[in-house]
Amino acid sequence: MRPPLVLSISASDPLGASGLAADLKTLTALGVYGAGVTTMIAVGSTQGVRSLHRLEGDVVGAQLDAVLADVRPDATKIGALGGAAAATEVSRRVREHRAELGTLVLDAVMVDLDGTALITAEGAAVLAAELVPQVDVLVANTLEAGQLLGRAPATDAEGLREHALALRELGPRSVLVTGARLGGADAVDVLVHPGGTDVLRSARVDSAHTRGAGATLTAAIAAQYARVEEFGRTGQDDQVGSEGTQDDDITIIASAREFLASTMIDAQTWELSRTPGTGHGPLNHLITLSAG
After folding, report:
1. DSSP class of 130
2. Cα Rg, the chain, nearest whole Å
3. Per-residue pLDDT reduced to its tens digit, 17-29
4. In this structure, which CATH number among 3.30.450.20, 3.40.50.1260, 3.30.70.2740, 3.40.1190.20 belongs to the domain 5-286?
5. What is residue 207's predicted lDDT score, i.e. its pLDDT?
6. Residue boundaries of the structural domains of the chain
7. What is the rounded distance in angstroms from the CA atom of residue 56 to the CA atom of residue 117?
8. How confident is the model at residue 145 (pLDDT cuts 50, 70, 90)?
9. Pfam families per the record (predicted)?
10. Which of 15, 60, 25, 63 has the alpha carbon at shortest distance from 39?
11. 128 in the Ramachandran plot: left (φ > 0), alpha (ψ -120 to 50) or beta?
């Protein structure tokens, strides 16, 4: 038996709320084996990021080489890179092993919830020039999309659409620009994919438990693509989508959004911090394991 496998490349979070920890919890919850490569240690908590400790490029590269020499991912998720050294090593491995990485999902991590920059300007330049053109699915929030395009952040759904269309011109097969920062009664995201453009709306979850939301969403997307690959291997192609890749994109991303909302809702009664009512709490990634 070979389980679906996702390789996550991201930062380590000691709280276990975001980055690699959130990815691996999400993958586990969705029945996917998770492998993880660490790019940096983001020292933080529910109160924000205190400091960043970026790993040397050769350390990031060595981790990738060890994993890719041994296993073949069904999907790969790239998250926080931290700086140019890690971004360069990851980009080079993507070029060298592109056919062996499965569906490649890029979470364009640039800024933390509290405004802390999570990647250097040099790293962001490498990400935009070398990684974005190689990926299948690019996910960015309003701030990240604006930074990648050199524009002001979108302020409404039409702005999200314009930014998603512009980002797709850079090379990704599909682009999801998330609008959580826009406010309003609905959570509005825009997906541009081979079949067109879709505005995805759902009731906004009013919760203080949002740390790791971006990581959770993109890991869930990667997990579902890995499961599609598994269905193909086992002759169950009809399990997800009915019109090929474009239908899979919509179905998968809608499913990932639902999972994210569920993790936020289920964590609303949690209080882990020593200072209740402050900061951004974690999500309950393991809801599928406790749902009975």
Report:
1. I
2. 18
3. 899 999 999 999 9
4. 3.40.1190.20
5. 81
6. 5-286
7. 18
8. very high
9. Phos_pyr_kin
10. 60
11. alpha
